[in-house]
Amino acid sequence: MESETDRGKANIVLVGMPGSGKSTVGVILAKMTSRGFVDTDVIIQTSQGRSLQDIVNTEGYMALRQIEEDTLMNLKCINHVIATGGSAVYSHSAMQHLKSRGVIVFLDVALPVLEARISNFDKRGLARRPDQSLRDLFRERLTLYRKYADITIGCGDLNQDEICAQIISLLFPLYPAPH
């Protein structure tokens, strides 16, 4: 059985749609929980020397998914907050790898909110079929996010600090909530 100490060292892995706030929430959550922060989209762009959109444009969305899977499978960090790309959930093996080293937190944001946040859908470097709309992508991925999530945070009208406070209260119920 996992001890409180083990859970305290575990990674917190954020999954969710593009625009759900994984990167922003991740930085704040890492500070609040004294963890390192990793953004897998940044790792991909740095290791590839180009943007996600460039990968999609030149090699296709399936190439981006494969690069993302390889990146996730090679993550060996502990005691980190990890913001994954929105398509991480397409790889069962990568999600199992992440789950074995931490807790998966799904940032659940309603489609209308995502539509309002994402103005650059066609230029964002998303691992999606060219004919897929944001609505199609949302419907396709929602089941996968729910499948892999250990915790789901209904982000609704919450700001980033409130989302972090909810995550902390669920993961560390014995500790006082951050101020």
Individual helix count: 9
CATH superfamily: P-loop containing nucleotide triphosphate hydrolases
Query: Kindly state the mean pLDDT as a whole number?
Result: 88
**CATH top level?**
Alpha Beta
Radius of gyration: 16 Å
Q: How far do the termini sit from each other?
A: 31 Å
Helix content range of the residues, please? 40-55%
What is the molecular shape? globular
What's the count of strands? Answer: 5
Major β-sheet annotation:
5 strands, parallel
Written overview of the protein:
The chain is an alpha/beta fold and 179 residues long. The protein has one domain (4-171): P-loop containing nucleotide triphosphate hydrolases (Rossmann fold). The chain is 50% helix and 13% strand. The chain contains nine helices and five strands; from the N terminus they run αβαβαααβαβααβα. It has helices at residues 4-9, 22-32, 40-48, 52-59, 61-73, 92-100, 111-117, 134-148, 160-171; strands at 11-15, 36-39, 80-83, 102-108, 151-154. The chain has a five-stranded parallel sheet with strand order 2-3-1-4-5, with helices on both faces. α4 (52-59) packs across α5 and α5 (61-73) packs parallel to α6 (92-100). The radius of gyration is 16 Å and the shape is globular. The two termini are 31 Å apart. Residues 1-7 have low confidence and may be disordered.
